[in-house]
Automatic annotation (TrEMBL):
Keywords: DNA-binding, Transcription, Transcription regulation
DNA-binding span(s): 42-61
PANTHER family xref list: HTH-TYPE TRANSCRIPTIONAL REGULATOR RUTR, MYCOFACTOCIN BIOSYNTHESIS TRANSCRIPTIONAL REGULATOR MFTR-RELATED
Cross-referenced SUPFAM superfamilies: Homeodomain-like
Originating organism: Streptomyces fuscichromogenes
InterPro entries (UniProt xref): Homeodomain-like_sf, HTH-type_TetR-like_transc_reg, HTH_TetR, MftR_C
Record carries keyword Transcription: yes
Protein name in UniProt: TetR family transcriptional regulator
Record's keyword annotation contains DNA-binding: yes
Domain HTH tetR-type per the UniProt entry, residue ranges: 19-79
Gene Ontology molecular function terms on file: DNA-binding transcription factor activity; transcription cis-regulatory region binding
Database matches in Pfam families: TetR_C_14 (PF17754), TetR_N (PF00440)
Length: 211
């Protein structure tokens, strides 16, 4: 009998299932943070709500604040995928606008959860740190996507600057929308339309550059 044939216990989780679990933990964590605050939320509570142990939660994330990372990561990949799919002959402003506005970032079923999370980043230092860290990690991803699309070296200055401008616009637009514009009672369609309008305005400023 081989070692594989003699193995007992649970089969190993697939990468897809691990990603689903991480996202479920993130959603539950945000719901608990909104309901009772970050300080009052424990790993045990998060695990119990998901149906796993606190030990499993800590295997996925180093802290309760870090539990929200999958929600941020999904947005980064959506924008990067959009940047890689530019059609030839379009201006930078048009391309960036389509990359963001037509991506799953805007149409995500987690949009309401993301709005609640971004609201919390204004008053919860630990979540604020995770939010800013996600943009720090996004910038080189966007720069590589921009360089790949333009046929430029990965270390070229131009896509690095473009990525920094886009990154800043995305963060400013998201915060402006959630902190100043968004109505928590608005229906999903209205919230999406408002978010799209805010993003479009931000990207127009990026396209126009500095005067």
């Amino acid at each position: 009998m081989t070692a594989a044939a003699g193995r007992t216990g649970r089969p190993p989780l697939t990468e897809e299932r691990k990603a689903e679990t991480r996202l479920e933990i993130a959603r539950v964590a945000v719901a608990l943070f909104v309901a009772q605050g970050v300080a009052a939320t424990t790993g045990e509570q998060i695990g119990r709500a998901v149906g796993i142990s606190a030990r499993t939660v800590w295997r996925y994330f180093p802290s309760k604040e870090a539990c929200v990372r999958p929600l941020f990561a999904a947005g980064i990949e959506a924008v990067a995928d959009g940047l890689r799919s530019w059609r030839p002959g379009r201006s930078l402003g048009d391309a960036l606008g389509s990359a963001v506005l037509d991506s799953s970032l805007v149409h995500s079923p987690d949009q309401a959860t993301m709005s609640a999370l971004i609201r919390l980043t204004r008053s919860e230092p630990g979540l604020r740190a995770e939010w800013l860290q996600s943009y720090d990690e996004a910038e080189p991803v966007f720069a590589r996507a921009l360089a790949e699309r333009a046929g430029l070296p990965a270390d070229d200055l131009r896509p690095a600057i473009q990525a920094a401008a886009l990154n800043g616009a995305l963060r400013a637009a998201a915060e402006y929308h959630v902190w100043r514009v968004a109505d928590e009672t608005a229906d999903a369609a209205t919230a999406e339309a408002e978010f799209r309008a805010t993003l479009r305005s931000a990207l127009a400023v990026v396209a126009a550059g500095l005067s």
